[in-house]
């Protein structure tokens, strides 16, 4: 039986593995189909992780040292896809896609979330090359420049306002004439002088070259008027798909408490509503989706796992 099964190999999962093994647990396994690293491996440059400041270093390079450090202390990595987690008596059963399973005293689920893509022409080709879903991560690269923000919810408007403090101009594009965001957020954006609000408009194509994004083609949905906007960066906020399927039982019901958006409800200790089950990183409620926070979540969850196991013995 495993002391702890960690599902998901991003910053939260790797850090949980590091703290659990270094903290004395002998039988800890991380289940991740590919090489660990998470979404940050797709980033072209890392600048906002404290203590790390190497210009030109990619997310893939950044995560390489994490893997080496975590595995050094005894964390095992198994390339198996987890189908589901179930509480069976005092312990957990982790079932894999091929029908096999393993028992674990505790489980930390860190399967994250995936930004929704819109299907706009050029989006996939220029993803990570000027197309971003994180203003906090990538906004600084456009300091003093003009950018486009696509979306009409709270996240889109909040990120547009954040970018307005960095960029010379923010073009907020929304397909409707009204925003879904809270009235106070809308008012704040409307008062910000360097945010251009472009409503009733869609992005038909994101244009670019070998260097990255160069601009967008716009279309007014009411007049069909087509126009172009020259920008080096496009921020898309179409929501996230929470990767929560492993927390569903055979009937499709969640085994722990979730919110309306499918995020795991946890407390400050990363504890879920099921004793011995923890969740960390981007899939939890109120996650700011930053590497440094995911790492902190992972360490918190691991420390709680160690305390939980000590209490059981």
Count every helix, treating DSSP H or I runs of 4 or more residues as helices: 6
Q: Give the count of structural domains.
A: 2
Largest sheet: 7 strands, mixed
Strand content: 25-35%
Q: Report the top-level CATH class of the largest domain.
A: Alpha Beta
Determine the CATH superfamily of the largest domain. Answer: FAD/NAD(P)-binding domain
Structural class: alpha/beta
Q: How much is the average pLDDT? A: 93
Can you write the helix and strand succession as a string?
Answer: EHEHEEEEEEHEHEHEEEEEEEH
What is the third-level CATH name, the topology of the largest domain?
FAD/NAD(P)-binding domain
Task: Report the helical percentage.
Answer: 10-25%
From the N-terminal CA to the C-terminal CA, the straight-line distance is 14 Å
The CATH architecture of the largest domain can be given as 3-Layer(bba) Sandwich
User: What's the total number of strands?
Assistant: 17
Structure description:
By secondary structure, the protein is α/β, with parallel strands linked by helices. It has 2 domains: 2-115 and 240-312, FAD/NAD(P)-binding domain (3-Layer(bba) Sandwich); 131-236, FAD/NAD(P)-binding domain (3-Layer(bba) Sandwich), CATH 3.50.50.60. It contains 6 helices and 17 strands. It has helices spanning 11-22, 59-72, 135-138, 154-164, 183-191, 291-312, and strands spanning 2-7, 28-31, 76-78, 82-88, 91-96, 101-109, 113-115, 131-132, 146-150, 169-173, 195-198, 201-209, 212-220, 226-229, 233-236, 240-242, 277-279. The strands form 4 sheets. Strands 1, 2, 3, 4, 5, 6 and 17 form a 7-stranded mixed beta sheet that branches. Helix 4 runs parallel beside helix 5 (183-191). The chain is elongated. The two termini are 14 Å apart. The model has no long low-confidence stretch (mean pLDDT 93).
């Amino acid at each position: 039986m495993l002391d702890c099964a960690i599902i998901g190999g991003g910053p939260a999962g790797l850090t949980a593995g590091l703290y659990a093994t270094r903290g004395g647990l002998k039988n800890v396994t991380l289940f991740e189909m590919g090489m660990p690293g998470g979404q940050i491996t797709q980033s072209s440059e890392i600048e906002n992780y404290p203590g790390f400041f190497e210009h030109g270093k990619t997310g893939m390079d950044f995560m390489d040292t994490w893997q080496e450090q975590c595995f050094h202390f005894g964390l095992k990595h198994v390339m198996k896809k987890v189908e589901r987690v179930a509480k069976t008596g005092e312990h957990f059963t982790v079932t894999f896609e091929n029908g096999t399973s393993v028992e674990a005293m505790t489980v930390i689920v860190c399967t994250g979330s995936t930004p929704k893509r819109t299907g706009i022409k050029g989006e996939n080709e220029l993803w990570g090359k000027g197309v971003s879903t994180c203003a906090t991560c990538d906004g600084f690269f456009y300091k003093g420049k003009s950018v486009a923000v696509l979306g009409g919810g709270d996240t889109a408007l909040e990120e547009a306002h954040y970018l307005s403090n960095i960029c010379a101009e923010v073009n907020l594009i929304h397909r409707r004439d009204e925003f879904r965001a809270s009235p106070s957020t809308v008012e704040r954006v409307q008062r910000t002088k360097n945010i251009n609000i472009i409503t009733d408009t869609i992005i038909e194509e994101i244009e670019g070259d070998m260097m990255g994004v160069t601009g967008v083609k716009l279309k007014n949905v009411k007049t069909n008027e087509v126009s172009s906007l020259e920008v080096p960066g496009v921020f898309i906020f179409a929501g996230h798909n929470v990767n929560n399927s492993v927390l569903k039982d055979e009937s499709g019901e969640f085994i722990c408490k979730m919110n309306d958006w499918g995020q795991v409800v946890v407390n400050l200790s990363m504890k879920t509503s099921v004793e011995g089950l923890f969740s960390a990183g981007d899939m939890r409620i109120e996650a700011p989706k930053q590497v440094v926070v995911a790492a902190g979540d992972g360490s918190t969850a691991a420390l709680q796992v160690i305390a939980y196991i000590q209490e059981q013995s």
